[in-house]
Amino acid sequence: MKLCKSFLDYMATQEEPILTYKASDMVLAVHSDASYLSEPKARSRAGGHMFMAANEEIPKNNGAVLNISQIIRAVMSSAAEAELGALFINAKTAVSMRNTLEELGHPQPRTPIQTDNKTANDLLTNQIMPKALKAMDMRFHWLRCRDAQGQFRYYWRPGTQNLADYFTKHHPASHHKASRPTYLTSNSDPQYKKLFHTSPDTKSNVVNPTKATITTKSFVKSLLRTERLWQVPGQKSITAPSA
């Protein structure tokens, strides 16, 4: 209950989340990252940021269509193995997303997958020879196999430019506030305000009601006032307590 209240307090004090999508060529792009031994029982966490972009060497960020943040169940023996585990998790998810996009009429080139671990990238791109990889053989060979099939393209960039890093670690409030504009649009952003401003009709000088200012309420406050949330089986209704 303490954790639940902490989460609701956080939600009630934050701005409404606004996800902005820009027009693209509908080419799936993936950022993959892992934090090594950052979880209890010597486990690691995988993170992923997936978005639609143009068919470019280094895709430009867009609104996320999926973010992954999950504990890798197996205990990884090195940071490179953890990165390969995260790449494996993200690539498996990307396979079904590629199929969906192709069935919707958006042919997919090799899906670019970005990693910030040089060793993992060099192993997958044949720049270094694998040795003593028995512990990570399956993930390593699966990723290489999909690369040979023309499904994925792996490339390296520094960790500061890897957008999946945010989802792999526990951060202080200051980092959340600093990172929020990268993934979400502020409701005070000028481009967002243009969508909801009141403008007079050019012909009749009458305010167009379809462009009137829209004021949103807190998701948490609205949720707590929802009658259905407080309904008990066998009873018709229960008065919702004030938020």
Describe, in plain words, how this protein is organized in 3D.
Strands 3-2-1-4-5 form a five-stranded mixed β-sheet. Helix 2 runs parallel beside helix 4. 32% of the residues lie in helices and 18% in strands. The longest helix is centred in the middle third of the chain and has 25 residues. It has a domain of 156 residues: Ribonuclease H-like superfamily/Ribonuclease H (Nucleotidyltransferase, domain 5, 2-Layer Sandwich). The C terminus is likely disordered. It is built from seven helices and five strands. The radius of gyration is 23 Å and the shape is globular. The protein is α/β, with parallel strands linked by helices and 243 residues long.
Major sheet characteristics = 5 strands, mixed
Within CATH, the superfamily of the domain at 19-174 carries the name Ribonuclease H-like superfamily/Ribonuclease H
Terminal CA distance: 16 Å
Order of helices and strands: HEEEHEHHEHHH
| Proportion of residues in β-strands | 15-25%
The CATH topology annotation of the domain at 19-174 reads as Nucleotidyltransferase, domain 5
Q: How many DSSP-defined strands?
A: 5
- Strand order, sheet with most strands: 3-2-1-4-5
List the helices and strands and how they pair.
Layout: H1 2-13, E1 27-39, E2 43-53, E3 64-72, H2 79-103, E4 111-115, H3 118-124, H4 137-148, E5 152-156, H5 173-183, H6 190-193, H7 219-224
Parallel strand pairs: 1-4, 4-5
Antiparallel strand pairs: 1-2, 2-3
Helix pairs in contact: 2-4
